[in-house]
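Re: folding output
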Amino acid sequence: MRFEIAWIVAVLSAPFRVASFVTPVTRRATLKTTKTTSALYETASSTVSLETLSANLEKTWSEAQVTKVSKVKVGPTATSRLGLIATSPMNQGEVMLAMPYDDLYVLSPSLARNVVFKEYLPGGYDGWTGDTGLIALLILNEVARADNKGIHLPERKPALQDFMKAWIQALPSPTEMVELHPYLWSEEDQEILQSSSTNKIYRVLDDIDEDSAWLEERVWSKNRNLFPETIQWNNEEISCFSQDGFKWAMALAASRTVFVGGSLRLLPFMDFCNHDDQAEEVTGGTMGTFKTTKGAQVIASQKYQAGEEVHCSYGPKSAADYLLEHGFCPPQVFKTAISELTFELDSEDRFYDDKLDVLEFETYDSAPMDPTQSFDVVSAPGKDGEPDPAMMQFVRLCKLGSTDAFLLESIFRKEVWGFMSLPVSEQNELAVVNTIVDACEKALEDMKECGEGGPEVCTQIRESEVRALTRTMEYLQREKEALDLKEYYQERRLKDLGLDSEWSPEDDGLGDDLSFGQTRLPGGADYDW
């Protein structure tokens, strides 16, 4: 009994967050900056040169044997700090790099929960920063282990630990990341970015601050031998288990992780692969002599010669997502304008409990929806402003009421979510259109208040999102004018029952010799009750 009570207290004291239904996919950043390449090298050479860092990594990597297939090495590049360089000619479709999912060196949320921090985090811990935050904790622990501190788990052979130390030392320092990632930008530049996008950086920063404050109070401050506040790293003192250190680790984790094999993972060595729009994404696969080992692989999207930098793609996503996750926006991303709108089930709605029940149990198998959902609005060729059907479906449920509320009765509980995929009633559809238009107008008003100056990429994102929001509003205004032409639930239901046409005596298929009362005339029955 005492154990059960202690477990409940530990769980309740942990920071919990209900996961969003849509799981974002993150990728490693090509850490580009507005500085020139020479200036970037000067930043790195103030501690240890990139050539030295990459040489140490190559030496320890070859001794640790952490890859199944490797035709690349880590080295300085002309534009992106460090990257993967081909060591031999490769053809299109060839596997350039393959690494197994080995918990001895691959960082994952399960490794953090079940091994490294098992004795220090309460069971069921789920911080506001989610899986990315757990990987950030593992990064900080590897930083501490490189200075002979931290939690010495998982246990590794000396060659493998030397590789992990060389990998950690090759990562961008906190000083470099100030220029390379918006999490560490100045407050003035973050303010500009906050007003330039509906994908708010302050939401992420608030999550980071809340988790770091909780960890500082409940974990880090309890044992500074295991969780040092600062450590020596590449001949300089940097923050480790602290608010600043956690923010730096979050920037690294957000920019270097890949969702593969059903989990978010950070694969040391592979994480140095930089982005190219035409390249292939990192994929899961099998490897080894008998193809029985599961792992991640990078496949060549073109021919490469020895000495050329090889690339992978970080996947399709909006400009704001690229910037917030990877610290840069590839030019290709602005060809499609994307903005984000967030809607929430009104807790004051008289049908709130019924709607919440639908979201939790009757939407998608094993994937209950959160009452707050975010959706993309897009302006692109072939889809210029047309709203996401999933957004329309969710907002229809949010606005369901009045004479349409009968659909929330228990008899329809298994079907109501499917009903929301199509217009319910003219009244409901009008409320949906007005709600989305209002959200677009509010987002546009917020962007008008954006201050001048700031990074150029913020201006590009703002202009792109204004286009997406404007096109969506224009599309919905056209929809609003044609609401009376749509087919709604009642018409569809009558059609399904075959009752959508006017009645006539001929429809019964009865002869003219039948007497009165034998046809289906209204009131024509002569029953003796």
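--- second protein (sequence, then structure) ---
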Amino acid sequence: MRYRVPHPIPFAAYLFVSATTVFVGATPAWPNGWTATQPDDTTTRGTQVLVGTPSYHFTVIETSDSYFVTIKDHTDDYIKYATIDETTGRFVPTEFIVGQADPADLPEIQPGLVEDADIVRQKCMENSYCKWHAENNGKAASAAPKGDLKNLLIPVRFAGHEHRGLGIHVLSRELFNDDDLSVNHFFQQNSYGKVSSLTSVLSDEVQLSKTETECADNKSGLSEKLHECYAEALESSGADPSQYDTVSFIHSGYGAEFGDQDEDGTYFDDRIWSHAWEMEMGGVRRLYATFSAYWGTANLRGTRVGVPVHEIAQTLGAPTMYGDGMGYGLGYYDVMASPWGFDGMAWHCASMSAYTKMILEWAEVEEISSNSKKTLFDSTESSKVYKISHGFPNPGLEYLLLENRRPKDYDTGMRGPGIAVYHVDLTANDLAGKPSDGVWPKNHYRVALVQADGRFDLERLEDEGDIGDLFYKDNMFAAGDNTLSDEGAASEEGKSHSGHPNVKSYAGGKEVKSGITISEISDPADEMSFFVEFEDIQEEGGDDSRRSLRRASINEQK
């Protein structure tokens, strides 16, 4: 999950913000909320939740039917309720302290505030990281990552953190270089051995002259101030980055993506948000990844595999899969959308999706262009991905990808295994959209999971993966009759939007029939089968031929 947005926030509010805005991000915000302590040792009482991306985010207090925006007032360090300044159009703190004032009794405090889309874009363009990422997402690698790769891992201790033990040698051995549930193992498995190893090589530990707060620059580390700090770290390490495929800085602060104050009282704006970016190294600009050595905001527990994988993958050319607006993108179906994973603990951090593996040239993509029965094996073992572009008006830019996802390895905890169907439209604006929101299908993701229940939960911020998402026989949560076609399913309480899920083209904001039908999807298993038929392809024998194909399939199973 890139965002943890309270469900009661009206989708219309998101739509208003994101209609003309590009949101980009690094590691998404931790999904859980927190109760903060004020300078006078009182608490905010209500649970605060972090909303948005590293470059554009704000905090809210949830209510039963809405939310109130909160903001830290840096003149006195109190967390206060926010309002929108009439002159600048931006969030500013009021005088009312969270935990000491009841916003329901204060007409000055309005629920459900959002900043205008132009203000959000303006803020993004003021942030050099946000601007860079918008222009470079998924364009990092000049060649597909393969073979034996080396990651330079530079341990960085900020001034004032001398009391924090990094435990870096244990992390290097067990988290980065182990043969199971590690950064190395993740890339070996997801590349199907094309990356034969990704070895993280430790440099000497570096003691910085600047504090974490100085390096964070009140921007969660998303400014060139951090580059100054890391330039010092690189020089002090004595390492030559040109000898490595990737460079990572692992630091002594708690990740800003966890929100809250850390155990020393440092607010998340003054900590480093894990990310991938570029900076000058040895006279050339190179990509780097950065992340905390710790999990959470206290107790010096070692970090887990999800966040380092998410960041290092970007330095190898993997795109982030969040979408560009308020939505979950591919959610738990791609570590590049959410590194926390189905179990929420970032050990089983989710595999990469078929699309990301295809981009990195790790998937074996086979085009389906005739009426046929097909079989897909467990995607943790098989690199086979099916692509269907026939039937779409512009098959080079719009198509379907299919893979068989199973609840094992990095997908442990998956609610409902089955065939994952991704609808790819490379011309899309990458904003979350759903039927009945007023702009569908103008707004939709470039890569969207076609959810079997037709609920668009990933777009609606309802959840990041549930039992109704994937296709399999007798899925009681799915809409329709185990068939995916242009017609879609009739509206059913709690299950679907009328006519969804379907396989219509929606490029250019207009739905057009594709003539594709995917039917008779088998039970969830390591080997799954299904039929694909095209309306404009008539096999010799017509319907009799299709029936014969099905009878042959039934006989095979006896």
